[in-house]
Design goal:
single chain; 181 residues; alpha/beta; Collagenase (Catalytic Domain); 5 strands; globular
Length: 181
């Protein structure tokens, strides 16, 4: 029963994040068949982990390492948060009760993401085991890179159910960053 509840929470959360992206910034979710919202103007992307606890830093760093292992983009740590393309953090709680909140800013399309911020909800995630927390962080970083959620393939990092990006995630990231150096 507990597994079914966690699955339901993840599905509801994916829907909530997708809906929240509709109204935030100028990057919008569309009926497009493209597996991405947009991409940064460079494959070298900086990030900053605003979380202060070792526990949450480890979750974020694990997600960063997984996306870097695909060798499509190079995520590099920025010493100053103000210099980062992507900001990763946690909050005690998020208003709508979602596990994760994402924000992309910039025009939709290739080279269109100017900045991203991902926030994990510690209150909701306290009910998850470490593997579940890492899965949510992995999806969050994928979203920050511009990828859309994958509601049909539970082996995808963009489903919130996978522990690492799969071959299709790599293809989608390559498509999003095609022609970008």
């Amino acid at each position: 029963m507990l597994l079914k509840n966690k699955t339901l929470v993840k599905i509801v959360t994916m829907f909530g994040v997708a809906v929240s992206l509709l109204g935030i910034g100028s990057v919008t979710a569309s009926a497009s068949s493209k597996p991405y919202y947009g991409s940064f103007g460079s494959r070298k992307i900086t990030y900053h982990i605003d979380s202060t606890s070792k526990h949450w830093k480890d979750n974020w760093n694990g997600a960063i390492k997984s996306w870097n292992s695909l060798h499509v983009v190079k995520l590099r740590s920025a010493k100053k948060a103000s210099k980062a393309n992507i900001r990763l953090t946690t909050k005690k709680s998020i208003k709508d009760g979602a596990e994760i909140s994402g924000h992309l800013s910039g025009p939709q399309g290739i080279g269109g993401v100017l900045s991203s911020k991902v926030v994990l909800n510690r209150q909701v995630l306290s009910e998850f085991d470490e593997n579940g927390k890492e899965q949510i962080a992995l999806t969050g970083v994928g979203t920050a890179l511009g990828l859309k959620f994958n509601h049909t393939d539970n082996t995808s990092a963009m489903s919130m159910f996978a522990s690492k990006p799969n071959a299709q995630d790599k293809k989608n990231l390559q498509l999003a960053y095609k022609g970008i150096k």
